[in-house]
Amino acid sequence: MASGPHTFVICTVFSPERFKGNPLAIVSVRGNALTQQRKSLIAREFGYSETVFLHDAPGPGLPRRIDIFTEQGAEIPFAGHPVIGVTHYIFTRCERFVPPPNSGRGEYERQQAVLMTKAGPVPVFYNPFRMVAACAVPHNVHLHETRVTMDKVLNRQPQIQIVPTYDKIKDKTFPVVSGVKGMTFVLIDLTDAPEILGSLQASEAPDYELDADWRLSFQGALYYTRQDSMHQEGEPTIHPIQARMISQGVEDPGTGSACCALACYLATDEMKNLSATATKGGEKGATDEDDLAKKTEEVKLEDTNKPETKEGGKEKFERHVYAIQQGVEMGRLCTIAVEVDLRAEKDGSKSIANVTLSGRANFFARGELEPHP
User: Fold this and answer.
1) How many Cβ atoms sit within 10 Å of the Cβ of residue 121?
2) Domains in the chain, ordered, with CATH?
3) Which end of the chain, C or N, has fewer beta carbons within 10 A?
4) Per residue in 215-248, pLDDT tens?
């Protein structure tokens, strides 16, 4: 077990450019020496939307544990941008691998590891040639019974009433979706009134009720517009989306968990004909080694744009690809890729087989925490 000072790095996630993307602090915890209370205080002091605490691996090649805290000091089970940021850090700073000279891409095109989160084990991948990190997102997708009315949106964003296209959406209601227990978002579709997206202000999310057993959760609002799809022969259709995530009086420039919830909702045709018993994958408790190995094998970072067929051609996945831009209005452009694989069930319904989140990152600062007196 390593000893010494707790070091930290600052990076921006979902962008290769400095001072773009979503800032993240990564603190290396030496010997499990930080209490949960101390982690909470450190996260509040950094003041980023999330701070992630990376623990030492118990042995070579074994999973590393991470703890994710918000700027308010609350711990959350999973968030996309901390996992992507930590993956970049592990493979470019901790376990940096340089392919042998003249080796070509081949077997070195993908590196992989496992992170242990409060939402369960998360397989992560890094492509050193593309400089892209990806993770197999834990998912237990749940559509709540409640829908949010426009009146509740207006309680938080009253200024949108003066936008000329407001009348096109004034009678709409919006779904509430949890991608995993503990992370919930109302998905507010502004496609018919895209001008509203630019008029939003940092505020609280609209009030909404959560179903029983799902009430201990972060609650946010993801506002989005869908753009024209991009088609290329032999490849899945790419669905571009412009989004903003607002909650707790602030706007987040890049929210992987919200984008994954949205992608799952859209990929399943607003969760119609979705198998009620087959939406789970990698949520807390799913630690069986065979299940983890299976999921690691199913997620293919090196060639994620081509439809997957499992061995023997017995099972095909229907792949949906979303290219999401977030943080534009904040001057912190994030480019977030989410892929959702659907599996056809015997009863004609569909289940979510895999959710993959990917993006780039860059580092611009590092330091040490002073010892606690």
Assistant:
1) 21
2) 7-137+360-368 (3.10.310.10)
3) C
4) 999 999 999 999 999 988 878 889 999 999 999 9
